[in-house]
Amino acid sequence: MSDDLVKVKNFPDRMYAERARQSLDAEGIPSIIQSIDIGFLGAGGALGLPQGADVYVPVEFAERAREILSDLFDGV
């Protein structure tokens, strides 16, 4: 697995990003979330943030991750 990560989707808040991360994990795709909040239950975690929360995956999983997230979160 590569150490290079690529952003596959931006979400309006961390709650959506956490759900996406769980969906990717269920498909065997490792991911991380990058956001200015301090965690799922921390300040701003449940509120929309101007910059949202980004989901990153290793580059070799990017295409499949985008497909999964597009199917599950189309329009988000």
Q: What attributes characterize this protein structure?
A:
76 residues; alpha+beta; Alpha-Beta Plaits; 3 strands; 33% helix; globular
As a percent range, the share of helical residues equals 25-40%
The biggest beta sheet, please?
3 strands, antiparallel
Shape: globular
For this structure, the CATH topology is Alpha-Beta Plaits
Number of domains: 1
Query: Reading side by side through the largest sheet, how are the strands ordered?
Result: 1-3-2
* CATH architecture designation: 2-Layer Sandwich
**Distance separating the two termini:** 29 Å
Kindly state the mean pLDDT as a whole number? 86
Approximately what portion of the residues adopt beta-strand conformation? 15-25%
Category from helices, strands and their pairing: alpha+beta
SSE succession? EHEEH
Instruction: State the CATH class.
Output: Alpha Beta
> How many E-type strands?
3
